[in-house]
Design goal:
The protein is mainly α. The protein contains two helices and no strands.
Length: 67
């Protein structure tokens, strides 16, 4: 999608959703980081998800730069 184009009504661009999700996951990691024994499994899962969202954001950024 070109910068001048707007998404259809009701459709939030993936990069915006990903940024919000990264913030949520980062807050969860911060809350759970103090309890290593019970939370390391969750933290690893959340960190992996953050990386996936970063790739989405980078992909959209590259798409916008190529148009």
């Amino acid at each position: 999608m070109r910068k001048s184009e707007k998404p259809p009504v009701g459709i939030v661009p993936a990069a915006i959703v990903s940024r919000a999700r990264i913030q949520d996951l980062a807050a969860a990691i911060e809350r759970y980081a103090g309890n290593y024994d019970t939370s390391i499994r969750h933290i690893k899962k959340w960190a992996s998800e953050i990386l996936k969202h970063v790739e989405i954001i980078e992909g959209e950024s590259e798409d916008n730069n190529n148009e």
